[in-house]
Write a structure and sequence with these properties.
The complex is a heterodimer of chains A (about 750) and B (about 160). Chain A has about 750 residues and is of the alpha+beta class. Chain A has 20 helices and 27 strands. In chain A, the strands form 7 sheets. Chain A has a 7-stranded mixed β-sheet with strand order 10-11-8-18-15-16-17. A 5-stranded mixed β-sheet of chain A has the order 13-21-20-19-14, sandwiched between helices. In chain A, β16, α13 and β17 form a beta-alpha-beta unit. The model of chain B has no long low-confidence stretch (mean pLDDT about 95). The chains are: A alpha+beta (about 750), B alpha+beta (about 160).
């Protein structure tokens, strides 16, 4: 379900218009609505995303959620830079979850990234249609590493530049001088010739009389004053003194707490609940709420609710999946790959023919398990129904989407639902609007009360009721011609997912056939940081490494030899390798591996340097990462995101495994769904590269995909053991390198 | 009635002796800076100080911490940001920020009790989970704090003094 929704968003964008690289702009009607509904006491909106107060405070309204990626800093920087605002007097607010702040730019960005374009003269019409699409689709989404590259580049910068032009026009009119004689800096407008100046605040209401330009002039990179600098992040002070408010911290007056047990087998229905009397007699317990697939205890304290919940004996219906295990699922995958209908993903040349004519066909089968997100803040949502209206307190990657979802579940008009945004204690795709089981439960439980109820999942529920990264199997065949050139690449994998290009390769290989086979499971799935790239990059870049060793070629040179037409890819590989000391031997007992992937508009190469512990476990000593994201808005935060993406991917590579047994998830908490910790965290070096004229790329996800292959490839270089299935915790490696070059079957 | 000394104040609570300190802090006292992460002492998000020592409040019954000085993240900086909190800003550590209260409490207690922990001591002591992967910056911050140690205490001085 979640994937079709994700596709629907993209499809709707295409159908709904957009289809262009345009500027965000605001129709006058929207601007006047904003002024009417949201401006207070002399404040004036210049566009939907900017507000300038009479006291010269500029407020940037961000239509994305802050989940640690720094969006509350980077987006305002982009607007403030174009506006020539004084950063010290810029404030940041998260957009309210109303249609007025639907993010049309995001729809356009996704559409543009799919390669569509439309003539400029259609902009005006397209803009309106896109905006409507955004409203309908509840587009306030934070995902796809999209904030800076779409909202920022197309929205925030244009908003800042348009607002600046309006202020200049207002000053020109007030002073009766040509606009060309007017300069702006630090939130003031200057006319040097007459030695006059006015603050933006003084001009704001006059400026708002002008319509925002459809095509404001943006700065050249050499004119940037904020973009490209590392200003301190605005959200950090509240995150070191305990005052930052996450969804779980919401505490509206009179709130009760709900603890929930959901059918452990996905799809099971609640049939009966035993021992209710005992639970109801527990101190603080208010009510037991039975849902179609879950039972909840509502109490005046979460611990009391959870304690009483443990006394209940819920019985869930049996399902077709009651006896299913991971072993069965992977067996189904194999059967589907053997006999299932194949759907074409990529066809170049004739791989079958090429393989038939090569002497030596190299084959390998890979697979990875399901993964949970394990955001640190367990899933929660607080809801209040009162007088026909509904209020929601939660941290989500799409406040508008959640508003729509709650309205649907509660059968209310969307305008009767108010969503209060919070910081997210981790998102990683789990808090996207298509993954709403917690929200649905919270809504249904709270409907039975006239006080706010916080539905809070235990870590066990969080681990066992996720929308998981799908398990995937992937099979490869490849062949070299008699001169040693890689001439055929054949790949078949389970389950087409987003982004559609995840299994495509950057390397120039004349014959390619990439297919997929569908083999649905009963396990719910959703977007997990970098989505399909995290599985496929492990497969693609491990198999590429196998081919390099097979040919007894250096893995770096082997890749470079197939990247003559991809200079940006070649450059990140070289940079990562250079900084990692690739051309010099690794220290004794260590070896290096390299991997490459482009995702979300950024190209990333990572070199991992690994060693073994005394008991044969992998230790990742150092990771060197080069990333070309086109242009860097906030270098320090960019590095932060890269470090974060690497640790997230490394945790999955080393420990990540959700196992299905008897239809349910076996793992439950951090003791059996293990996490990388400080003691195992590698040294990480990040090299940020820019490419003049290139589109800006994402940063939240692209560093995650390559790390599993980089580590696995390093392990092969060190031990001669090829890892074709994750996680690494299931292996013990032998220290002395066995003979390399052979591809062990 | 349970009597607790929290951030220098005496609080009387009509709660069960076995209630974990975490839920007394969050649900009974509204001190939400201390976070719930796992409930089994496996992640450290709920770390607070008891007599200056780091403990995991999700598995610590309130009965076990009567007659002690309890400090939460809210109390740590009552007299201004501590060196650890300042280092967290200097190194721009928090991302989502959810684990950082516990992380800061754990690091503060370690550095107060051990003036010069080696890498192993840090690794053994700081087992808190951060899903955003802020570990490399935390390592740098700790190294800096050790190298540039001053007389400023790392934990709430009143709580430490009363031990």
């Amino acid at each position: 379900m979640s994937i079709s929704r994700r596709r629907f968003l993209l499809g709707a964008a295409v159908v709904g218009g957009g289809l262009l690289l345009g500027y965000a702009s605001t129709r006058p009607s929207r601007q006047s609505i904003a002024n009417r509904d949201y401006a207070e006491d002399g404040q004036t909106f210049l566009t939907t995303w900017l507000r300038i107060d009479p006291d010269n405070i500029v407020t940037v309204i961000v239509p994305h959620s802050e989940m640690g990626q720094g969006v509350l800093t980077s987006l305002p920087m982009m607007a403030a830079d174009e506006l020539d605002a004084d950063w010290a007097n810029v404030r940041v607010e998260q957009a309210p979850a109303t249609d007025l702040f639907a993010n049309g730019v995001l729809v356009k960005g996704f559409a543009a990234s799919m390669g569509f374009a439309a003539p400029a003269f259609l902009n005006r019409t397209m803009d309106f249609v896109t905006l409507k699409a955004a409203e309908i689709m509840n587009m306030q989404i934070t995902g796809g590493s999209s904030s800076v590259r779409f909202t920022g580049e197309m929205g925030m910068r244009a908003a800042g530049a348009a607002a600046r032009e309006m202020l200049v026009k207002a000053a020109a009119q007030a002073w009766d001088v040509p606009a060309s004689e007017i300069a702006t800096r630090n939130s003031r407008v200057y006319h040097e010739a007459s030695n006059r100046s006015l603050s933006y605040g003084e001009l704001a209401s006059a400026a708002a009389q002008f319509e925002p330009s459809r095509s404001p002039v943006l700065k050249r990179p050499d004119q940037f004053t904020l973009m490209g600098t590392s200003v301190p992040r605005v959200d950090i002070p509240a995150k070191v003194d305990g005052t930052a408010q996450f969804g779980i911290d919401a505490m509206p007056e009179g709130m009760l707490y709900a603890a929930v047990t959901t059918s452990p087998v996905f799809g099971g229905q609640l049939q009966s609940v035993g021992n209710k009397d005992a639970a109801l007699q527990q101190r603080g317990v208010v009510r037991i709420v039975e849902l179609s697939d879950a039972v909840a205890v509502v109490a005046d304290n979460y611990w009391r609710a959870n304690k009483a919940l443990a006394l209940l004996q819920p019985v869930f219906s049996s399902t077709d999946a009651d006896n299913r295990s991971s072993t069965d699922i992977f067996a189904d995958f194999d059967a589907a790959l053997d006999n299932g209908e194949r759907f074409e993903d990529v066809v170049v040349g004739d791989a079958g023919q090429a393989l038939a004519s090569t002497a030596d066909v190299i084959t390998a089968n890979y697979r990875v398990p399901f993964l949970a997100h394990a955001a640190m803040e367990p899933m929660n949502c607080t809801v209040l129904f009162r007088e026909g209206r509904c209020e929601v307190w939660t941290g989500t990657q799409d406040n508008l989407g959640i508003r729509g979802r709650v309205a649907t579940v509660a059968d209310l008009d969307e305008n009767s639902v108010t969503v209060h945004p919070f910081y997210l204690g981790g998102g990683f795709g789990r808090r996207l609007p298509m993954s709403t089981n917690t929200i649905d439960q919270a809504t249904l439980i709270a409907q039975q009360f006239d006080v706010p109820v916080q539905t809070l999942w235990s870590r066990e529920e969080d681990t066992r009721q996720d929308y998981y990264r799908p398990a995937v199997s992937s099979r490869f065949r490849a062949g070299f011609d008699s001169s040693g050139n890689l001439v055929a690449w054949e790949n078949a994998y389970i389950g087409k997912n987003e982004p559609v290009e995840a299994a495509h390769i950057a390397y120039s290989i004349p014959n390619q056939k990439i297919d997929y086979v569908e083999s649905p499971t009963h396990v719910p799935f959703g977007a997990w940081r970098s989505v399909a790239h995290s599985q496929h990059t492990f497969f693609l870049e491990s198999f590429t490494d196998e081919l390099a060793w097979k040919q007894q070629q250096d893995p770096l040179q082997f890749r470079l030899s197939m990247l003559a037409n991809k200079p940006r890819h070649a450059r990140v590989l070289r940079e990562a390798a250079d900084k990692a000391g690739w051309s010099t031997p690794a220290p004794a007992g260590r070896a290096r591996g390299i991997a490459l992937q482009e995702s979300f508009g950024s190209i990333v190469a990572e070199v991992a340097e690994v060693s073994l512990t005394d008991d044969g476990r992998v230790r990742v000593e150092k990771v060197t990462c080069a990333i070309d994201c086109g242009r860097v808005v906030h270098p320090d935060n960019a590095a932060s995101q890269v470090e974060s993406g690497i640790i997230y991917g490394l945790t999955a590579a080393m420990y990540g495994q959700i196992s299905i047994e008897q239809g349910r998830v076996k793992e439950s908490n951090f003791h059996d769904y293990e996490m990388l910790r400080l003691s195992e965290s590698p040294e990480i070096q990040v090299v940020l590269l820019e490419s003049e004229g290139a589109s800006i790329g994402g940063l939240g996800e692209p560093a995650t995909p390559p790390i599993s292959a980089a580590v696995s490839n390093a392990l092969y270089a060190l031990t001669g053991q090829r890892v074709r299935e994750l996680p690494l915790k299931n292996y013990r490696f032998l220290p002395p390198p066995v003979e390399r070059g052979a591809v062990d079957a | 009635m349970i009597e607790l000394q929290i951030n220098g104040e005496t609080r009387q609570l009509d709660i069960e002796p076995e209630m974990p300190l975490l839920w007394a802090l969050r649900n009974e006292l509204g001190l939400t800076g201390t976070k719930f992460g796992c409930g089994i002492a496996a992640c450290g998000a709920c770390t607070v100080h008891v007599n200056g020592q780091a403990i995991r409040s999700c598995v610590t019954p309130v009965s076990a911490v009567q007659n002690t000085q309890i400090t939460t993240i809210e109390g740590l900086s009552a007299g201004g940001l501590t060196p650890v909190q300042q280092a967290w800003i200097q190194h721009q550590i928090p991302q989502c920020g959810y684990c950082q209260s516990g992380m800061i409490m754990a690091v503060s207690a370690l550095l107060e009790s051990n003036p010069n922990p080696d890498e192993q001591a840090v690794a053994n002591s700081i087992s808190n989970v951060c899903r955003c992967g802020t570990y490399p910056r935390i390592s740098k911050a700790i190294a800096g704090l050790i190298a540039n140690r001053t007389d400023t205490p790392f934990v709430d001085a009143t709580a430490e003094a009363s031990v």
